[in-house]
Amino acid sequence: MANVARTGEIIHLNVGGKRFSTSRQTLTWVPDSFFSSLLSGRISTLKDETGAIFIDRDPSLFAPILNFLRTKELHPRSVNVHLLMHEAEFYGIAPLVRKLQLCDELDRSSCGSVLFNGYLPPPVYPVKKRNRHSVAGPQYMSGRTGPVERAPVRRSNTMPPNLGNAGTLGKMLVEEKPSGHVADPGMVRIICGHHNWIAVAYAQFVVCYRVKESSGWQQVFTSPRLDWVIDRVALNAKVMGGSIGDNDKMVAVASGTEIILWAICPDGNGSEIGVFSLNVPVEALFFVGNQLIATSHTGKVGVWNAVTKHWQNQDVVPINSYDTAGSFLLLGCNNGSIYYIDVQKFPLRMKDNDLLVTELYRDPSEDAITALSVYLTPKTSDSGNWIEIAYGTSSGTVRVIVQHPETVGSGPQLFQTFSVHRSPVTKIMLSEKHLTSVCADNNHVRTWTVTRFRGMISTQPGSTPLNSFKILSLEDIDGLGGCSAGTEIGPYGERDDQQVFIQRVVPDTDKVYVRLSSNGKRLCEVRSVDGTSITAFVVHECEGSSRIGSRPRRYLFTGHGNGSIQMWDLTTAMEIAGKVDAKALGGPTEEELLELLDQCDLALTRTPDMSPRRLLHPLQHPRHLHMQFAVTVE
């Protein structure tokens, strides 16, 4: 022990520049700790000029640790429990670590907070079938139909009986990794909701659940395991007109250029409707009514018509944004124009080569339309709705255009212009009371108060500026940690109600912030009940029960790295916030942000890339584009 600085049994320490003196007995009463290794010579020591052992750690955190070793008591109110636990783990003081864990977990539970509404464990991994779902190979035919493959279906309640199989997903994935580059095929990539259903996409299969008030959430469909990684998913839980079969539901997934569509029958069995190709990468997949739509920024629109059962590809100019209103699909395009398609009439022709794709409006500056939001007011006359459209452009301009029911023939009129963004607008939302826009500058948000007269927008001379804030959200730079389609910030919610943003600051975190879209204030924060990272999320409103007075409820669904789904009751969060003023906090505070950033490698993350080079097709110039329509009916 010659290399240990001591006078008798007194040990002199220099911790981060501050001197401490204590006894050998005090330092070593916890077996197998940092100090027992240090004083036994198993760890090499450095000494300062006085001969004291130098330890390069925080002295302010060492003081309560030394006090615990002396008295075996802890006073957690005087310290930061999280930081102290980190130090106690470094020094290997197991009794102190355990006490601090209990303090840290006092307000946390595997049963979650009052907002925690349910838990769906990871589904059983479907067996791989010899199927034709491979991007490669001539057998992959657009619109092909043939013998129907029955997907394996397992019914379950909220907590399935075979909970032991929750680990099966992970075990099988270790044995057999899928093709394609994905960090963890067992994690949730995308969640989408429709009515009382949700669809959950994993790397190579999709699972559908439905909820009933009496029986809870039930798993009703599992797709076969595919040969490629799912990038997009769409769900239609209310098929109108019985075009597929009475009460059938549909779910679709896309990867690269390919799309697979299934029908889900009332008894939970599923059947494949078809395999289709857009011929270019699918960047948006959604339903308008019971018609499946796929779009690509390269200028392609694909439509599967539920009546004719045909898949049809359409060439248009490069597409940057879209929104839907009733049976109408609106496209914001690179040439500064907004086009609309009546999807119900899409396959019909007025005459040869004259499809029902119509230019609705052209931006005065002919800037690319990078974000689009349509607000349909209640019917004001026999002639139809008053239509309001807010859109954003590649130059950062935000405009509002309106169309009277009585002046349908003359097209929308420019109503307002805002020039407060200096980066391309990436999202926009026109709702009952607010106009919200987001630009590419680290998700910078601007909001305005909108006034209405008899339900119609009437803000004059201009909307009232309400707030300006950022929804910082870092992404994996290699894209292997998740799917960008599963972590859209929003805004989410019905347009006649308060909407919210969801903020996941760093990729590998178990916490998200729910913020009011109008002012950025924090509605609540949600933390995974099992400590797993949140890899996908969506906000969805489920219909109320058939009981009189029952109203829809809004939920946040979070998907996790272990494959589970956790549900959170945002309706209750809104009610609680309404009784007491919403917290002045927005997203993470500076301290919370630094704590989150400590958990990730900034070299491996990036802020959302919504730069003009991504928004604009590189081979097209807005002023030299012409509409080109080509139809393929298969």
TrEMBL record:
Q: Where are the transmembrane segments?
A: none
- What InterPro entries is this protein classified in? BTB/POZ_dom, SHKBP1/KCTD3, SHKBP1_KCTD3_BTB_POZ, SKP1/BTB/POZ_sf, T1-type_BTB, WD40/YVTN_repeat-like_dom_sf, WD40_repeat_dom_sf, WD40_rpt
Q: Report whether Protease shows up as a keyword of the record.
A: no
Q: Which UniProt keywords apply?
A: Cell membrane, Membrane, Phosphoprotein, Repeat, WD repeat
The cross-references to PROSITE patterns, in alphabetical order and at most eight, read: BTB
- Superkingdom of source: Eukaryota
Output one GO BP term. protein homooligomerization
The record's Gene Ontology cellular component field reads: plasma membrane
- Carries keyword DNA damage? no
Compartments annotated for it: namely: Cell membrane
Identify the residues that the record assigns to the BTB domain, covering every copy. 9-78
Q: Where is this region: Disordered?
A: 136-167
UniProt family annotation: Belongs to the KCTD3 family.
Q: Quaternary state and partners of this protein?
A: Interacts with HCN3.
Biological role stated in the UniProt entry:
Accessory subunit of potassium/sodium hyperpolarization-activated cyclic nucleotide-gated channel 3 (HCN3) up-regulating its cell-surface expression and current density without affecting its voltage dependence and kinetics.
What is the name of this protein? BTB/POZ domain-containing protein KCTD3
The scientific name of the source species is Synaphobranchus kaupii
